[in-house]
Amino acid sequence: MMKVKLTILESKCRGNYHRTGDTFIVEDICPPICHELWQSIYPSVYTLLNKGDLDYEATREKKFRMRCPDNGRVLIHGEVVQD
Question: InterPro entries from the xrefs (predicted)?
Fold first, then answer.
């Protein structure tokens, strides 16, 4: 089964939900992260869970980086991992 590993690369989260280095594994349910951040990354996570790939710089990859909608206070990296 496909899984997506989410890693917080930078965090200046005003709600103190996220710390740099936090990781989450997504299989089929929302991980315990901020809802605004989840809503932003969900389309990318869904694509990866369904064997798709995404634009990643100049190539197509099974990973992404995205910033939080709250002025980019959190930088998150998502990538496909296998069992």
Answer: CHP04076 (IPR023811)
